[in-house]
Design goal:
mainly beta; 646 residues; 9 helices; four-stranded antiparallel β-sheet; single chain
Length: 646
């Protein structure tokens, strides 16, 4: 027990809360740098502050070092920044489950050798409030890498994001028909904007930051009061989904782009349609207005861009060069150049005065969905499966930002140019700091994708799963037999400890038990209402666990469902049973691992990660868990508070 925890335990609840709220500030004001450093590297303080005040209050304590006259060495300051960065990166998890603190600090900071960090982590390892999964290696994104913070709240794909001119708020637009206003400093969701009756495809914030305009697949645009979340007016006129919207620098007009192949210019104060711009031969995906407000650039599925005079609606020039849909366009701050993004996997920089292609940016390996230019015009960020930062003057790729687990649909750069926010089909937004095996043999025979393989306990045979299952002789690579039954894909297969039976699972929501010696189907297990993704058989061979949106425990001899394990909020893709047969671990796309007591069916521990978990295994010691996530990371964790032989 640290001295801080000992002293805190002697205080009344009221005084305890007061101390947690004011002590860091008091130490900063009285220039007690060493004591402040000790406090902010004390795990007991960090845990107590999180529990009593919340994650944002804890994060702000570390800002005291940067704004006060407190003197600390460069190494001490850096350590505090790393701890703060780890807490900030985990804020979206800690907001919902404070018991994840120890695991997340270990998972993000174990590789940093600073004595104060390692000392704090030694304290964290002793945390015993309940059973938990302790990372044995730095298995989460390290502090200082990847995004600064993750914003969660939308329950479907996020299509677009815009940052207010003061950089203090951002607005996201989602497939869930809503928009959300966020505090960019704390990551707090401020307001949800409802009113659209279909997916919200785009959003733009007026220069004064007081109003925003959204575009939707419901064929309308809506103007919102960003301070109150009130819908001010609805703009109607398009005859198909509205894909994009941009607001002029004076805030008085806006331009929308639609699947009806046209653009419309609107008076934002009255909601009146001023003029219609026609010329594209396919849907218009994006539009950007030049800084002087006099011209606009549109990007279309017809593979071209057009420059328009916004006052007259006259088409000035056409930009030709892309060989795929042009999905996005951004106008540079000087008004002389624009950057387009395309499904041909490239970006192009154009001279808007002459219509000349200046340079092409290559590097993405998939379709490019979005692009944003920094306020200084010197860098740009593009979004595809990853994000890339480019030097706009040379066309050089500066860095790649990896973190999202699905397509990135949109990106916005803050006014200071130092941070950016991306929006993705993985249902999250991320805030970024813009500056910082030998092949033995091949088994062939399946005519479709092979999804899973299992090796028998004696190592002499293996079973592979595709549209059918095949049993192989592992020594010769010979196909022994084919097991047919399914009209759907087989996603997983497990072999019983005696090697005589196997269980396969399929997208038809069932499990099948097979006799591996004869290839005979013994029984079918039904009960899941979603695709079954994984199955594990207990060491005694008498029970099995299947994973879909829920987990189910089965009696393998009778095919009876014994119980259902609920708690995951998304599909479960893997399950493993400990050697003692008493506990199991499940891995889900809800980004959590859960440990289950199989006798009671109760959840006994959980660990939240940065990405969706795809697979898991339990070591022979029964307490070491190895897990793989969608980012490519392999996690090593130890189950604390539960013995492997209990």
């Amino acid at each position: 027990m640290s001295k801080f925890k000992e002293r805190l335990g002697k205080l009344s609840p009221k005084k305890r809360l007061y101390a947690l709220e004011t002590l860091p500030g008091h130490l900063a004001e009285s220039v007690q740098g060493e004591r402040l450093h000790q406090l902010l590297t004390d795990f007991d303080f960090i845990e107590a502050k999180l529990d009593a005040i919340g994650v944002q209050g804890l994060i702000e304590d570390y800002d005291l070092v940067g704004v006060s006259d407190v003197w600390l060495s460069e190494g001490q300051t850096e350590s505090l920044k790393l701890i703060q960065g780890a807490i900030r990166k985990s804020a979206h998890v800690l907001d919902g489950d404070k018991t994840q603190l120890a695991g997340h600090l270990l998972g993000r900071l174990l590789d940093f050798e600073a004595p104060e960090i390692q000392g704090m982590l030694e304290q964290a390892k002793q945390w015993k409030d309940c059973p938990w999964l302790r990372p044995l290696k730095a298995n989460l994104e390290r502090s200082g890498e990847g995004c600064l913070r993750t914003l969660i709240g939308h329950n479907s794909e996020v299509n677009a994001v815009a940052i207010a001119p003061d950089g203090k708020i951002a607005i996201s637009a989602s497939f869930d028909n809503t928009l959300k206003i966020w505090d960019t400093e704390s990551g707090t969701e401020l307001i949800t904007l409802t009113g659209h009756t279909s997916s919200v495809t785009a959003v733009a914030i007026a220069p004064d930051g007081k109003t925003a305009i959204s575009a939707s697949e419901d064929e309308t645009l809506k103007i919102w009061d960003t301070e109150t979340g009130t819908e001010l007016r609805t703009l109607t006129g398009h005859t198909s989904e509205v894909n994009a919207v941009a607001i002029a620098p004076d805030g008085k007009t806006a331009v929308s782009a639609s699947r009806d192949d046209i653009l419309k210019i609107w008076d934002t104060e009255t909601g009146t349609e001023l003029r219609t711009l026609t010329g594209h031969t396919s849907e218009v995906n994006a539009v950007a207005i030049a800084p002087d407000g006099k011209t606009a650039v549109s990007a279309s599925r017809d593979d071209i861009l057009k420059i328009w005079d916004t006052e007259t609606g006259i088409e000035l020039r056409t930009l030709i060069g892309h060989t795929g849909d042009v999905t996005a366009v951004a106008s540079a701050p000087d008004g002389k150049t624009a950057i387009s993004a395309s499904w041909d996997k490239t970006l192009k920089i154009w001279d808007t005065e002459t219509g000349t292609e200046l340079r092409i940016l290559t590097g993405h390996t998939s379709e490019v969905n979005a692009v944003a230019i920094a306020p200084d015009g010197k860098t740009a960020i593009s979004a595809a499966r990853t994000l890339k930062i480019w030097d706009t003057e040379t066309g050089t790729e500066l860095r790649t930002l990896i973190g999202h687990t699905n397509w990135v649909n949109a990106v916005a750069i803050a006014p200071d140019g130092k941070t950016a926010i991306s929006a993705s089909w993985d249902k999250t937004l991320k805030i970024w700091d813009t500056e910082t095996g030998t092949e033995l043999r091949t088994l062939t025979g399946h005519t479709d994708s092979v999804n899973a393989v299992a090796i028998a306990p004696d190592g002499k045979t293996a079973i592979s799963a595709a549209h059918t299952l095949k049993i192989w002789d592992t020594e010769t690579g010979t196909e022994l037999r084919t097991l047919t039954h399914y009209t759907n894909y087989v996603y997983a297969v497990a072999i019983a400890p005696d090697g005589k039976t196997a269980i396969s699972v399929s997208s038809n929501k069932t499990l099948t038990i097979w006799d591996t010696e004869t290839g005979t189907e013994l029984r079918t297990l039904t009960g899941h209402t979603n695709w079954v993704n994984a199955v594990a058989i207990a060491p005694d061979g008498k029970t099995a666990i299947s994973a879909a949106h829920t987990l189910k425990i089965w009696d393998t001899e009778t095919g009876t469902e014994l119980r259902t394990l609920t708690g995951h909020t998304d599909s479960v893709y893997a399950v493993a049973i400990a050697p003692n047969g008493k506990i199991a671990v499940s891995a889900s796309h809800d980004r959590t691992l859960k440990v289950w007591d199989l006798l009671s069916g109760k959840e006994v521990a959980s660990f939240s990660g940065d990405y969706e978990f795809n697979c898991c295994a339990i070591a022979p010691d029964g307490v070491t868990v190895v897990v793989g996530d969608r980012s490519g990371r392999v996690h090593f964790l130890r189950l604390e508070g539960v013995s492997g032989d209990r």
